[in-house]
Amino acid sequence: MKKTEFILQDLVSKIYQGAFPTNKLPTERDLASYYQVSRYTVQNALKELNAMGVIQAKHGSGIYVTPDALNNPLVFNALTRMPYSEIQNQMIYLKQRPLTANELQNFDIRNDDSQPQLAWEFLRRRLSHYEVTELERTVMPVRLFPHLDQAAVEGSIQQFVQSTGHRISHYITTYQTRLLTREEAQHLATKRQPAMIISNRCIWENSQVYALSENVAINYAVTYITPFNQQSLAYRMSR
């Protein structure tokens, strides 16, 4: 494990264990001395924590844990650890096509034989530091989103959805691995290799599924920090 990654995970662990009672972290110099690394390495770890919203620097005062950081389970991966401004979406295609039977069921839409229900389907590359890291294929019903264009696809789909007046409730996410197809490998500019497939059902507050997406990611890693559920353990042990 790289030193920056180790410091990042160790600091997150200490933050969630309450190792800093005043929510103020040691200085960069003290952290560099503690971890026996350069201040540059410490700064890189702190930069990632800041991008994730876990810490914030107050000029002339120090580095503090953000107030909301401890209220929710933390999940971070290669993309959430990077400022959104440093992530680019590049559209490969955007098209309309009929919804499949499986998609109609997922979106809870009844097909009309006289006028088939249509879907937007788009494929986009996600780049970080100008390097392609993910492919995302997303399907959205045209009846829910009559207007979708390249600007929306290359921007934030979440912002686009909320701009239509709907509030996003949650995502149901599934992770699995498989070998890249030749087409995927070409779009990712890599050889065929195992990749992480991240499937999402995207849901509004009224329980309506508004999008189905599949992300294909290479060199993917994700870290979860969740509180231990003692009651759940007691229930399982009693069965």
UniProtKB/TrEMBL annotation:
Residues 1-68 form the HTH gntR-type domain. InterPro entries: Bact_HTH_transcr_reg, Chorismate_lyase_/UTRA_dom_sf, Tscrpt_reg_HTH_GntR, UTRA, WH-like_DNA-bd_sf, WH_DNA-bd_sf. CDD domains: WHTH_GntR (cd07377). The keyword Transcription regulation applies. It holds the Pfam family UTRA. Keywords: DNA-binding, Transcription, Transcription regulation. PANTHER family: GNTR-FAMILY TRANSCRIPTIONAL REGULATOR, MANNOSYL-D-GLYCERATE TRANSPORT/METABOLISM SYSTEM REPRESSOR MNGR-RELATED. This is GntR family transcriptional regulator. It comes from Schleiferilactobacillus harbinensis.
